[in-house]
């Protein structure tokens, strides 16, 4: 029945009936929306790998801003890593099909951005203030995603706040000779204790050895652990 007829039959304002019917056409068929959120639209498969990666990037270098009846996801990527920019754009488009993804140049970086009213559904960690000043807790459904693809979650974290470096060591031996050697090492640096623990938990799921170099810095330095992390998350390009 048309909304007007229903409103007349039940004796309530037409606008109220429209509110009750949000998400449906007057015929009862599903309304087509530009962006399809897997949290709001039944039957959409969760893009587990892409969401795990985007969640890691959001926790590292992302935030939401409010606009008129919508939100904008911003993820800042260094211009030295064009491959990361491409990965973020692809993951954003996969997580929210139908939404428009664009980029905005900044000094030394590029902001990947996307407007949608669904971002608060997908990132309930959004809130006032910087992330390290408030609790960061994963919802059960997010925890299930991370437990399924900890490698992709770590890829997002390390692509945002991580780096792979070469550690150079100069040691003086007992006989007075000098030995110099080098080895690769991964670092992850974040001032939020909650995010640090999420990174450690994902590494534990993959059995990758790690330690805290300091409170805000996580180090993966053992040769076997570095090789395992390399294989899990791939290069930062």
Tell me the CATH topology of the domain at 48-137: Endonuclease I-creI
Report the β-strand fraction as a percent range: 25-35%
Looking at CATH, the homologous superfamily of the domain at 48-137 is Homing endonucleases
Sketch the major β-sheet: 4 strands, antiparallel
Give me the Rg, rounded.
Answer: 23 Å
Please report the distance between the alpha carbons of the first and last residues: 56 Å
State the helical fraction: 25-40%
Alpha plus pi helix count: 9
CATH class of the domain at 48-137: Alpha Beta
For the secondary structure, the number of strands is 8
Mean pLDDT: 90
- Structural class of the secondary structure composition? alpha+beta
Largest beta sheet: strand ordering? 1-2-4-3
C-alpha geometry: elongated
Q: What is the succession of H and E elements?
A: HHHEEHEEHHHEEHEEH
CATH architecture of the domain at 48-137: Roll
Q: How would you sum up this structure, described in words?
A:
It is elongated, with a radius of gyration of 23 Å. Among the domains are: 90 residues, Endonuclease I-creI (Roll); 74 residues, Endonuclease I-creI (Roll). It contains nine helices and eight strands. A hairpin with a 2-residue loop joins strand 7 and strand 8. It has 237 residues and is an alpha+beta fold. 39% of the residues lie in helices and 25% in strands. A four-stranded antiparallel beta sheet has the order 1-2-4-3. A four-stranded antiparallel beta sheet has the order 5-6-8-7.
